[in-house]
């Protein structure tokens, strides 16, 4: 029997990287291909424990490079694509929107063309709740799969654009697809520019922790391993053409998150430093994941158990995030894959 080949784009990033590890370990009978350009947020050191496994493969390529992508699909004949690869930092999208359009929109279109040309069995597009815009502070309101798309940042606009392209390829070319839209992820291997790992690293080193505005913006937090299980389920059981929201039922203000980390680490709240608010900063995100739960997914982490596990992971893996902060991780690919 032919082994199933799964292409995971953006597998050197945070969520994609956790998903690659999840799939390599759970499905030894699948060949897992990790495709990543290795931009600033691409880190292969996280894959040291799986890179020698026979079902793990790494390919360095730009998803917007049509010639390279078409050649890869021609060579490998993938069965499935799980598409994470994206520029994802909102602040960076405000200062440099162009790269977000290039990667998130054009890159997705190139992958869709390849998926259509080589007749893959399913294309799973991993998106974000930010495409829905923002909610007010009414705790009874949630994003559902029917919520209109109203993105408010260049990042979320580029993701909404890619969502619509995926939908269009399904409607026009009958490409088998699913779209998932998740709330804020956290957990191991989160790049230290994001709120939770930034706060942990700053607090450990007794450095000031910047908090936007008054810190009252609310996010629904989802542990990355719960997210991986959700995507696995959608890949195998998702109804063709459907969108699935993935949320953790864990709403917290940014300030609550920061204070929880500071308290857990036994440090002073005097480390908190309120800074000028982000442009177009959405007030609140909250997801209703009922549709996905009907498919069979249930999150295993509460915020309390998840944040405790995450903080402990960062304490136990200080060497990992210190080499990210120093930039040392960027030489790993050359040492391990080119010079080896």
TrEMBL record:
Matches recorded under Pfam families: GDP_Man_Dehyd (PF16363)
What sort of enzyme, by top EC class, is this?
A: lyase
Q: Which organism is it from?
A: Peribacillus cavernae
What cofactor is this protein dependent on?
A: NAD(+)
- Which EC numbers does the record give? 4.2.1.46
Coding gene?
A: rfbB
| Keyword hit for Lipid metabolism | no
Please name the GO terms that the record assigns under molecular function.
Answer: dTDP-glucose 4,6-dehydratase activity
GO biological process annotations for this chain's record?
Answer: nucleotide-sugar metabolic process
What Gene3D superfamilies does this protein's entry cite? NAD(P)-binding Rossmann-like Domain, UDP-galactose 4-epimerase, domain 1
Sequence similarity: Belongs to the NAD(P)-dependent epimerase/dehydratase family. dTDP-glucose dehydratase subfamily.
- InterPro entries, sorted: dTDP_Gluc_deHydtase, NAD(P)-bd_dom, NAD(P)-bd_dom_sf
According to UniProt, the name of this protein is dTDP-glucose 4,6-dehydratase
């Amino acid at each position: 029997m032919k082994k199933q080949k799964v292409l995971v784009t953006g597998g050197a990033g945070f969520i994609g990287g956790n998903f690659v590890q999840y799939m390599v370990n759970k499905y030894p009978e699948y060949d897992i291909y990790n495709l990543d350009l290795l931009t600033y947020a691409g880190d292969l050191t996280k894959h040291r424990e799986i890179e020698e496994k026979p079902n793990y493969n790494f390919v360095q390529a730009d998803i917007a490079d049509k010639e390279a992508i078409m050649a890869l699909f021609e060579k490998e004949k993938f069965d499935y694509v799980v598409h994470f690869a994206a520029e994802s930092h909102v602040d960076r999208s405000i200062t440099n929107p162009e790269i977000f359009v290039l990667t998130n929109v054009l890159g997705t279109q190139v992958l869709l063309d390849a998926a259509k040309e080589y007749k893959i069995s399913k294309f799973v597009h991993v998106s974000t709740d930010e495409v829905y815009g923002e909610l007010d502070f009414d705790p009874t309101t949630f994003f559902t799969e029917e919520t209109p798309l109203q993105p408010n940042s260049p990042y979320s606009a580029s993701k909404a654009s890619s969502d619509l392209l995926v939908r269009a390829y399904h409607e026009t070319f009958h490409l088998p697809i699913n779209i998932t839209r998740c709330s804020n992820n956290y957990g191991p291997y989160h790049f230290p520019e994001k709120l939770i790992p930034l706060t942990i690293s700053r607090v450990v080193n007794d450095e000031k922790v910047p908090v936007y505005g008054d810190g009252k913006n609310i996010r629904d937090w989802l542990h990355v391993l719960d997210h991986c299980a959700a995507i696995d389920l959608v890949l195998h059981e998702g109804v063709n053409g459907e969108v699935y929201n993935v949320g953790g039922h864990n709403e917290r203000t940014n300030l609550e998150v920061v204070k929880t980390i500071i308290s857990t680490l036994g440090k002073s709240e005097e480390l908190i430093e309120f800074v000028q608010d982000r442009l177009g900063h959405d007030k609140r995100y909250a997801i209703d994941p009922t549709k996905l739960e009907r498919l069979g997914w249930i999150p295993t982490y509460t915020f309390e158990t998840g944040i405790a596990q995450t903080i402990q992971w960062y304490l136990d893996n200080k060497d990992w995030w210190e080499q990210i902060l120093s930039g040392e991780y960027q030489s790993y690919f050359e040492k391990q894959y080119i010079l080896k």
